[in-house]
Each structure stands twice: as structure tokens, then as C-alpha cells.
Amino acid sequence: MKTIHLAAAALAATGTLAHAQDDREGWPESFTVGTASQGGTYFAYGSGWANLVADELGLTGGGEVTGGPMQNMALVHTGDAQFGMTTMGPAAESIAGTNPIAPGMTMDNACAIFPMYQTPFSVTALSSSGIESIGDIPEGARIGFGPAGSTSDTYFPRMMDELGVDYERRNGGWSDLGGQLQDGLLDVIAFAAGVPVPAVSQLEVQTDVNIIEFTEDEQQQILEAFPVSQFEIPADTYTTLDGDARSVSMWNFAIANCDLPASFVNAVVDVVMSDNDRMVNIHRAARSTLPENWDKNAGVLPWHPGAARWFEENAGADIPADQIHGG
């Protein structure tokens, strides 16, 4: 208890009295947020909010490199990570027991805590390749789909199959794949990540790239076949774009182990959701990290009680009791 009292005194001294006065019984002294590979949006965004929460609540915490949404569901479910981030598709598969990391395990002890942003699916190639559309991708193209088990690796190969693309599948972290594309070891990278993707922004600085959008027909075909929404990558996302780029997307949510104290999770959500400007300074994708987007969970994940209380009290959320863990 001595550590808790000292932390509370320090917080009061730094002006974060509201959080210091919370009931801190059972709070961890440190925490980790499962993100994804370096060079991707998950790592930048997740490490950013982890550091923000740690600073505001007087705890030790940070982002951890992982394999992405599928692995994060497993880590948070088992309690090996207190927090993580996932996408609605992998979340649904994990709860259904079809997560490839642990087939047959129903990962229902990972709870939703706040909406993050939409993950667009986009394709990048070097301008020198001559690939300007999905139809231009040559037979047997070497395509980097991101880390094994990531949202991109789970869904983008299926999308390419749906669109009739013949390819060799390659995996790796986004920064590594960006280097391979630049070195001619890959023909295409198929990104599923919040925009701007750091690896794409870095490529733009170093070489000429084509950011390839879907045609209207391709977009419609994917919308009919997968749990995604229509999306346009704004023109100001990358210097390469002359206009908005047609895409599809999945929503991302931050998750917590359902057994964490409600007061702790409530305080974490308050730090993240109460000042959007701070989050946007961490990553531009956080422009969608807004209270009104609580409904994008759409019943896929159970809500953590501490998070549900925050959205009910601050965003007018009407979350059914049977969608709240333990409710």
C-alpha cells in the first residue's frame, strides 16, 4: 500500500488530483500494451497512448512489439499483456475460437475499452515497377502482407484471391518489408494499417512510389465478400496522392484483460478519450478516436465494465447489459 500512497501524493502534486483520488485497489504498478511491428501504425499509436497513460496515472507502462491483432487478443485474454489493440475481424474470429494462434480457444476475456480508428487496406509499389492498379500486378508477384497473423496477413491475401491476383506470400515487419520493396526483393506491399503508415511515409521520402487504389468494381466486390466498410484515404495523407484513394477498412479497438479493476480501466479510458488533441499529436489516425465512435464495436467484443461506465457517463452510450463483461 505504501507504493500506492506515494503515487497518489505525486499525482496530486502534479495536478492530476482527479485520477489520484480514484480507488486504486488492485491497480497494477506497471502495464504493457500489445501493439504490432515497428514501422506500423499500431506500434506508433499504441506506444504513444501507453506512455500518455503511464505519465498521467503515475505508473510504469509502454508499448510492446507483437504480431498484431490476433496475437494481442491472445496476450490480453491470458493476461500476459494488460492491454492491446485489435481489429474487428480478428476479434470476432478470436471470440469464435478460430484464432490461428490458439485454434479452439474462445478468447472471451479480452474486453473492449475504446474505439481507435479505421484500418484502410491499401497497396504500395515502386513507381519504377509500372504497377499502377491491382490489374497491373504480375503473375507470381512477391507481395509483403505484414507480420504473420496480423490483420493484413489474415485478410489481404483473401482479398487478393477474391480479385484473382496470383502471388507469392511474404511476411515481415512493415519497416523490413519497406526496405525489401526498395531493394527490389518485393513487388508490392499490401498494407492494412491506420494512415499514414509510417513505413509508407518513409518510402515516400526515399523513392517514388505508387499508392494504388481499388476500382469501384473491386471495392464493391470486396465489400460483398468481407466484414469491411467503404473508405477513402484522404489526399493529404501522403505527398504521393493527388486525390482521395478508394479503399475499404475495418475498425480497431483498444482492449483490456476483463479482470482488470474497473476503476483502473475507467481512469485509462478517461486519459485517452478526454483530450483528442493529445491523441492526434501522437498519431493522425487518432482523429477518429472519439467518444461517439463507441458504437463501432457493434457487439463484437464484450465491454469492460470500467470502460462501459465511462462511455455511458460521458458519451451517452446505451450499452446493453449483456454486452458488458459480467453483466
Which features would summarize this protein structure in a list?
327 residues; alpha/beta; D-Maltodextrin-Binding Protein, domain 2; ten-stranded mixed β-sheet; disordered N terminus; TRAP_TAXI; TRAP transporter TAXI family solute receptor; signal
Structural overview:
37% of the residues lie in helices and 20% in strands. It has helices at 2-13, 17-20, 41-57, 69-78, 88-95, 151-162, 174-182, 198-206, 216-225, 262-273, 276-282, 305-314; strands at residues 30-34, 60-64, 83-87, 110-126, 141-144, 167-170, 188-192, 209-212, 229-233, 245-257. Strands 1, 2, 3, 4, 5, 6, 7, 8, 9 and 10 form a ten-stranded mixed beta sheet that branches. The longest helix is centred in the first third of the chain and has 17 residues, at 41-57. The chain is globular, with a radius of gyration of 20 Å. Residues 1-21 have low confidence and may be disordered.
